[in-house]
Amino acid sequence: MKKTVCAVLLAAGGSTRMGLDGEGRPINKLEADICGLTPIERCVKAFSPFADEIVITVAERTRAAAERAAKLAGVPVRIVGGGAMRQDSVLNGIKASDCDIVAVHDCARCLVSADVIEAALDSARENGSGVPALKVRDTLRRAATGDIVDRDGLLIMQTPQCFDRKKLLAAYAGLDCEATDDAAVWQRAYGKPCFTNGRLENQKLTEREDLELFRKLARREDRTMRIGMGEDTHRLTEGRKLVLGGVEIPFRLGLLGHSDADALVHAIIDALLGAAALGDIGRHFPDSDPKYKGISSVILLEKAAALIEEKGFRAVNIDATITAQEPKLAPYIDEMRKRIADAIPHIGIDDVSVKATTPEHTGPEGKLECITVRAAVCIVRL
Predict the structure, then answer these.
(1) pTM for this one?
(2) Which among 166, 199, 209, 253 counts the fewest CB atoms within 10 Å?
(3) DSSP string of 32-52, one letter each residue
(4) 58: which residues sit within 8 A by CB, 6+ positions away?
């Protein structure tokens, strides 16, 4: 029978070493923006694929941030009060669960990777304990004397520290002193825990100066790339304006549709939504809804871009090809690119490619029956 896992995420710390912000207020590191997500949110997302439930231990100042983070979880989440010391918070978290294995993790280690979590959990399932650790690499000296400390055999402890829940609970029940981490509690009761591989990136957000480093590391780790494709065709007809890429183009025919029928923007919207697995334009902006009648498709593009950001992605670049016999589109291409770029956060005109091709009088486009646009979009995780 598979052993169940509870991730106990510790978010009750005081952030005492983070200092003050520009207005003289204490910085709460657990509410810091690390590339669009707080440390608690990052930890919730990291542990959701591995845990059957999550318990977040909080102080009053971190409760609201934990409640927001809980909405990102793919498993049930409980929020419980922490304690005066770390070990009190851990004990509260363990008691809130009845799973077989607990993974105790400091939310300040918000860049923890899947391989570190998986290795520690596998060891806990097999051996009762799994503690990520790194060998000490640097020369160590005592501050008072300058004497070198022999680094051979020394390890730097990380989290998540994973254990058989009942055994860890019993170890805490017999604790009669302060413990700096769960591995120390385990060792007092059962002997040396099993160590697994940690990672350099799995370090603790501690001081204000750490924030920029964490953001750089997060940008590097989070760039999950996804590709979306979109295609749209609209019939050409008299009595309609021809709008492509948000630009009105003088021509005797226009595109037929419920909105302004901007086939270029519609194809890009479908590509964006498809890359984020959010369906298609008809799902979000149906032509049966009167509020979209005659609307500028650029407005819909802005809304689509917001939707993918809500899911944790942003656009990187766009490439689109318009197939049209007439009119000549080259004079309007750069303005199309600008309007598209202006509608999507984080990208500029150099990230938008729009090309036009003629079908040499073949097919429905060549007979001026319609205009077709195909688009490809790359997005990355925020």
Answers:
(1) 0.62
(2) 209
(3) --BTTB-HHHHHHHHHTTT-S
(4) 11, 12, 66, 79, 80, 81, 82
Short-list 86, 76, 19, 85, CA closest to 44: 76
Q: Give residue 186's pLDDT.
A: 96
Q: How many helices (H) and strands (E) does the chain have?
A: 12, 17
Residue with tokens 């509870």: 6
* Contact of 340 with 268, CB cutoff 8 Å: yes
The structure tokens 């009762």 sit at 128
Where are the strands (E) in 217-266, listed by range?
Answer: 225-237, 242-244, 247-249, 254-255
Integer Cα distance of 40 and 53 in angstroms: 15
The CA-atom distances, in angstroms, between 207 and each of 153, 189, 342 are 28, 33, 36
Tens digits of residue pLDDT in 284-312: 999 999 999 999 999 999 999 999 999 88
Cα separation, 368 vs 230, whole angstroms: 21
3-state class (DSSP) for residue 254: strand
* pLDDT 10s digits, 252-286: 999 999 999 999 999 999 999 999 999 999 999 99
Q: Smallest Cα–Cα separation from 185: which of 231, 129, 234?
A: 129
Please identify which residue in the block is written with the tokens 């226009």.
254
Confidence check: pLDDT of 98 > 70 = yes
